[in-house]
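Everyone, describe these C-alpha cells:
***
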Amino acid sequence: MAEEPMVVVRGEAVREVPPEIALFTVTVSARDKDRQAALSRLAERAAGLRTALDDYADAIERRETSGIQVRPEVKRGSERVSAYVGSVSTTVTVTDFGTLGEMLLRLANAEQTSISGPWWQLRPGSRAGADVRREAIADALVRAREYAAAVGAEVARLVEISDEGAGGGGGMMRSLGFGGMESADLDLDVDPQAQTVHASVILRVTITEPQALS
C-alpha cells in the first residue's frame, strides 16, 4: 500500500503583551571602622527597608533576601583593617505598577541605598504563551492547506505537532540612586515595557492524493 503524501510546514506567531510583574533589587549598605558599629548600622537600615516595604504590602507579591555581605576593608600594601563594610540585598516582586514609581523613590531616598530595576516580566506559564502557541498552530494549518490546495489536494490527517521554541521579551533594567534628595521633590512615572512573546511550531499532516499531478 502506497504511503500517504505528507506536508511539513512551519507556523509562527508573535505578540506584544503587557507585563504581569515587575522585579527590582534594593540594597542597603553600611560602613564603619568599628565592626559592631557597622553591623548595627546595617541591621538598622535593613529593618528600615522592611518597614518601608510593609507599607506597600498590597502591591508586593513577594520579597526575598537575595544576598548578605560583610567584609573587612584592608589598606593597600597592608594587612591592617581600615573599615568594615556590609550590605543586604532584597529582591521585590511587584504586581501593582501604579505605586511602583512612588515605592522606588521612597526606597532610593534612604541612606546608603541603591536600586536596580525594574525588570518587566510575564509570569511562568502565562496565558499569553498559550495563546501565541495556538496562533502558531493556526498559522501552520493555513500554510498546510495552501500547499495541499496548490496540488489539488486537501489536508487529511494530523501526524505531528512539535514545538520549535518559544520566548518572552527581556525586561528593561534601570538603576536608581537619589540619596540625599527630598522624596517630596521627586516624582517618577514608570512605563511598563511590553513583552514580546514568540512561538513557532512544526506541523506534519497527510494530504489526499494530489489531483493536479494526475
